[in-house]
């Protein structure tokens, strides 16, 4: 894990005082809400339906037990005893008082956390693969690259008033667990001639105009990495549209001028920027990377796991995935109990997960973009004990990547932008498919729900996607099939007219019946959809 | 209208002309860039410029930050003025992008500004100012 | 009827204009007629409210019922967490929203 040095501490501490000053000026009437809004947003503070909402950054989804306990503490002391883990690997609190926000940031700073750039038209928290440093299939740990970007992008003087928000994801495996190509910039660390560099994809995103990012550069070596990012952002800052906020994301620029023209512009800018000496030296990368070395794994551990408890065996098969180190495993903790709120965890549950990380996972946790938590480094011999503790805390659901492992935005229950509620739909679908045997029979099925066109619930990337809309004051839900945020990235296609809340649950069930009837050996829902097309599904749903 | 200057030389009193007017006449020494103007059009003429005024029509319009850096990166040493909807919390960022004078439309609280400019002892990235990024402090000069 | 709502500047709580101040309870909201914008401007200027806006509502025996579901959710609280709403003990409170 990255540890702050004196410089990092100093910068974050200054930020706390800066925000305290900004809040005081707002409360004293020295600045208007219009002027304060971009300032508070750049610190992750929104005004939502019921209160202020504070989004705390979890850089590249990694945190330690002390940090996790701080998140629980903040939930207890300043909020209503829970937090909501988001699709960008952050956590947000729904009931924050403006006057408390500076104190919360001060408390976060004591554990090397912050809310810097978790909103606003700036470079947001860098996201990454939740299995980074543990995955059997990764080329290298992507987090040192992500940390380098975190530092480069923090209070970047040129890129704090971009046309629109800017999201970057970094991965280092061919299996994409971070929806990399649905980001403004997606980076995959690749190897060439024995050197690691990045493949750069620019212009992906969801929202009202979903796009898959095209490849802009197949290899940028480390020595040019920051300069190249600077060039990518400068072209966007100069030429991204500012006349229409719905067309202001970089995906629109890249789409309108074309990937080739965008690449030319970036290359021309890079030729200038490269002369400036803004690329950190290799020694800085090495300094950061040294903090992400493997924990002290024990050698020679057995890979045997006692499966005699059948409930444990079910959980094991669903939630535990391969680790690069023999004798260890990666544990996924579901925050998707049947009928629960996707991504929510109580302060007590957050504490339990912190304790487990400290005791069994080398003090590390991860937040996933699917709104679950990961214990990245657990000895196989400890899995049973971990499962027992999780079960007591009601955290032992065995539904990873199944139909009830739903991504859902907060929707109209919390969000001032939403047009319809998302969470009740998620709850009804999960309840309809509550039987685990039935879910497992359906296999991998990624269902994602957004409460408005901004697509925070990633509905475009759902094998099944649901979009809530407002139809003359009544909630209505549009259904789509065939999306994916993984390495088989694709955008979902809408089925047809929308449904009521109950109607969309029925329609989902009918679609799964089509899949069960039509699938061939080994096909997932999305594979069957891709093979047979929309027609049989439409017939079942609307016929 | 308050004007804030961080330069030792005398203020330039020639009115700034538009970019088109500047490119069409050889003797102007002050130019005003609208946020949609390409700052690079000025690069062949930097040695005869004493003042470049960059317009910030709305505080959300951040194109001028790039314009400032582009001019400084190309070696422009004259006055670089940010004019328009320039807010006190933005001035430290603009300073880092090379701006050394400010003509905000609304008055700026100078005490707040002084505190803002002094707040950060360190910066993470190189820009158009003299501040050393922390990676340089950590490791010394590259190479 | 037209009623005026916003959030408390410091706490963020949802508030409703009562004719001489702000209440957390929509039942206390009064018809502002054509005065809504003027009251909003004055109250925002005095920093007693953040982001005030006028909405349509229906007068009912139980008090004003906002026309749009978004404001009914604001008035009550999240439908998925009845325990966190203003009426945690009322099991039928959620049906008022829908």
From TrEMBL, chain A:
<dbReference type="InterPro" id="IPR045854">
    <property type="entry name" value="NO2/SO3_Rdtase_4Fe4S_sf"/>
</dbReference>
<feature type="domain" description="Nitrite/Sulfite reductase ferredoxin-like">
    <location>
        <begin position="52"/>
        <end position="109"/>
    </location>
</feature>
<protein>
    <submittedName>
        <fullName>Sulfite reductase</fullName>
    </submittedName>
</protein>
<feature type="domain" description="Nitrite/sulphite reductase 4Fe-4S">
    <location>
        <begin position="405"/>
        <end position="541"/>
    </location>
</feature>
<keyword id="KW-0349">Heme</keyword>
<dbReference type="GO" id="GO:0016491">
    <property type="term" value="F:oxidoreductase activity"/>
</dbReference>
<dbReference type="InterPro" id="IPR036136">
    <property type="entry name" value="Nit/Sulf_reduc_fer-like_dom_sf"/>
</dbReference>
<dbReference type="InterPro" id="IPR051329">
    <property type="entry name" value="NIR_SIR_4Fe-4S"/>
</dbReference>
<dbReference type="GO" id="GO:0051539">
    <property type="term" value="F:4 iron, 4 sulfur cluster binding"/>
</dbReference>
<keyword id="KW-0004">4Fe-4S</keyword>
<dbReference type="GO" id="GO:0020037">
    <property type="term" value="F:heme binding"/>
</dbReference>
<dbReference type="Pfam" id="PF03460">
    <property type="entry name" value="NIR_SIR_ferr"/>
</dbReference>
<dbReference type="GO" id="GO:0046872">
    <property type="term" value="F:metal ion binding"/>
</dbReference>
<keyword id="KW-0411">Iron-sulfur</keyword>
<dbReference type="Pfam" id="PF01077">
    <property type="entry name" value="NIR_SIR"/>
</dbReference>
TrEMBL record, chain B:
<dbReference type="InterPro" id="IPR008318">
    <property type="entry name" value="UCP030820"/>
</dbReference>
<protein>
    <submittedName>
        <fullName>Oxidoreductase</fullName>
    </submittedName>
</protein>
<dbReference type="Pfam" id="PF06073">
    <property type="entry name" value="DUF934"/>
</dbReference>
From TrEMBL, chain C:
<dbReference type="Pfam" id="PF11011">
    <property type="entry name" value="DUF2849"/>
</dbReference>
<protein>
    <recommendedName>
        <fullName>DUF2849 domain-containing protein</fullName>
    </recommendedName>
</protein>
<dbReference type="InterPro" id="IPR021270">
    <property type="entry name" value="DUF2849"/>
</dbReference>
